[in-house]
């Protein structure tokens, strides 16, 4: 089993003066949810997610060698313009990963980032953002150590992304990623995400239409939410259930059982929100429109037998999941009945994707 020290490089065989990379990394949506963490971004339970395709962050990293300094030297741009508000988050990330990327203080970096989804849409950009940054730094490390294997690159990118934002470690690869030690999953790790490679064709190109119910700032950050699982009265049972549900969903995804998928995924979403409602302090992130949408999905499924279901992340938005072959019917239903419950009738059509992509290498 790998330990964090396995990601500390011994020495580099090359030197590099300057250059730039551009990577995109997608968001992901958990099917079995991660909620609760230990120190150093170690999850309290294992999780599994669909990697998305269209909701992504594109990050350009330029670097030029400088005299080693005491502080990190970087400029931060969002959509080409300076964005001081993002600095503390990046500073914290660099501090956390410095031991694993010992070259960080040898360069001045310009980090220029943009998202394909609307700003403050309630879609967390931290997963895609941290994953995009991690793969860029790995590209630089690969220049310094060209012998690096592809597997090590991906594992370490996921490991670094996790230190930025837990679920970001599931955004490096596609189409389905498992993160967290799980007895029934070979090579699973709390330190990074691994690909689940037995996806049945029924789940190929699975659709995720994200209904933007509430685009406002989250009332409770996920960091605080995770903390509230410490000492939560139902925590141990929940963590046990997540292990069990992960075994179940792996079998569902392998067999292509879309009916059982619906039950497990909806139950996970509601369990996540039940944990929030039963913590102390308690809180509710769903909005009246979230419930309207859930009820309409249930009615539509009952009437049509089309296996469409919902999941939720830590917010009011609803992810509508369905097989690609019922796309037309479901999109019509969404337009006719669900968009009225979205803020400014906004929604985003997404589907399962393949993970981070290198766009440019100079
Ligand atoms: O990665 P974080 O700390 O933003 O937590 C993500 C938590 C959920 O989205 C609610 C669940 C998950 O597994 O992604």
UniProtKB/TrEMBL annotation:
Provide the alphabetized UniProt keywords. Answer: ATP-binding, Lipid biosynthesis, Lipid metabolism, Lyase, Nucleotide-binding
- Asked if the keyword Protein biosynthesis belongs to this entry, the reply reads no
Q: What positions belong to coiled-coil segments?
A: none
Which Pfam families does the protein's record reference? MDD_C, MVD-like_N
Q: Could you state a single Gene Ontology molecular function term?
A: carboxy-lyase activity
Residue ranges of every copy of the Mvd1 C-terminal domain listed in the record: 210-347
**Domain Diphosphomevalonate decarboxylase-like N-terminal: from-to ranges:** 25-188
> Mind telling me which InterPro entries this protein's record contains?
GHMP_kinase_C_sf, Mev_decarb, MVD-like_N, Mvd1_C, Ribosomal_Su5_D2-typ_SF, Ribsml_uS5_D2-typ_fold_subgr
Q: Which GO terms describe its biological process?
A: isoprenoid biosynthetic process
Annotated signal sequence is: none
The protein's name is: Diphosphomevalonate decarboxylase
């Amino acid at each position: 089993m790998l330990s964090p020290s396995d990601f500390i490089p011994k020495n580099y065989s090359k030197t590099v003066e300057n250059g730039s990379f551009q990577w995109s990394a997608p968001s992901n949506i958990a099917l079995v949810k991660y909620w609760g963490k230990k120190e150093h971004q170690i999850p309290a339970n294992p999780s599994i997610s669909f990697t998305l395709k269209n909701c992504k962050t594109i990050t350009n990293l330029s670097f030029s060698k400088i005299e080693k300094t005491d502080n990190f030297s970087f400029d931060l741009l969002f959509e080409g313009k300076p964005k001081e508000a993002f600095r503390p988050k990046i500073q914290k990330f660099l501090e956390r990963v410095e031991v694993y990327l010992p070259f960080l203080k040898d360069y001045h970096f310009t980090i220029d980032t943009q998202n394909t989804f609307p700003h403050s849409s309630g879609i967390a950009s931290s997963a895609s953002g941290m994953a995009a940054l991690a793969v860029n730094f790995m590209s630089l490390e690969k220049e310094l150590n060209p012998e690096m294997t592809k597997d090590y690159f991906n594992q370490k990118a996921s490991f670094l992304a996790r230190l930025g934002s837990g679920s970001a470690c599931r955004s490096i690869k596609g189409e389905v990623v498992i993160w967290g030690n799980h007895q029934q999953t070979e090579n699973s790790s709390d330190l990074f995400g691994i690909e689940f490679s037995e996806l049945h064709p029924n789940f190929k190109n699975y659709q995720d239409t994200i209904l933007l119910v509430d685009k406002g700032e989250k009332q409770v950050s996920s960091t605080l939410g995770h903390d509230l699982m410490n000492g939560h009265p139902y925590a141990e049972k929940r963590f046990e259930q997540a292990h069990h549900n992960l075994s179940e969903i792996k079998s569902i995804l392998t067999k292509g059982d879309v009916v059982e998928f619906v039950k497990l995924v909806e139950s996970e979403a509601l369990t996540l929100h039940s944990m929030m409602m039963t913590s102390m302090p308690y809180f509710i992130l769903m909005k009246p429109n979230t419930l309207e949408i859930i009820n309409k999905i249930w009615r539509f499924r009952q009437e049509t037998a089309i296996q469409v279901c919902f999941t939720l992340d830590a917010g009011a938005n609803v992810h509508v999941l369905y097989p690609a072959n019922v796309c037309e019917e479901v999109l019509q239903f969404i337009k006719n009945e669900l968009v009225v419950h979205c803020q400014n009738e906004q929604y985003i059509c997404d589907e399962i994707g393949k993970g981070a992509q290198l766009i440019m290498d100079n």
